[in-house]
Structures are given as structure tokens and as C-alpha cells.
Amino acid sequence: MNRENQADQEDRVIYKVVKNHEHQYSILPADWENPLGWWDGGKRGFQTECLSYIQQVWTDMRPKSLRQNMDDSVSKVV
Fold first, then answer.
1. What pLDDT is attached to residue 20?
2. Which of 5, 8, 25, 47 has the smallest number of CB atoms closer than 10 Å to its CB?
3. Is 50 exposed, middle or buried (0-12, 13-18, 19+ CB in 10 A)?
4. Which of the 8 DSSP states describes residue 71?
5. pTM of the predicted model, to two decimals?
6. Dihedral angle at the C-alpha atoms of 29, 44, 46, 28, nearest 10 degrees?
7. What is the CATH topology of the domain spanning 3-77?
8. How many angstroms from the chain centroid is the CA of residue 8?
9. What pLDDT shows up at residue 1?
10. Is the pLDDT of residue 8 over 60?
11. How many CA atoms lie within 13 A of 6 on its CB side?
């Protein structure tokens, strides 16, 4: 049994991925209400599954507003 499977065996909680307006991700137990400013991010499952999903979709760790500001700055220079 690999480490991820062992972790899933020990933690039987079903989680959900949540996302905020800055396109930052986190996980919560699936039966919890989303905090203000966060909505469902499109994945439910064991902790390792949710974290793996986040790793696949959250490829740029910069907040959305920073990415937009940087893009705007580059546009003005060019």
C-alpha cells in the first residue's frame, strides 16, 4: 500500500475543493458550508484526490489580480 492510499484509509472524510475570486484553491470537508467569498471548485473526494486536483488546475500561484496587473503593465510597455 502506498502512502497516499494509506492516508485515504486513515482519513475517510469526503472533502470538496473550494475556490475564491482570486482563483486560489483550498479544501474543506464536503459537509461544511463554504466561507464567504468561496465557491465549489469542481471536485469532491478523499483529501489526496482533492489535493491532486488542485495541483493540476492551480498552475499559477499568483492571485488573479496580480496576474492582471502584471499583464496590464506589460501591455503599456509594449
1. 96
2. 5
3. buried
4. H
5. 0.71
6. -20
7. Rubredoxin-like (3.90.820)
8. 19
9. 58
10. no
11. 3
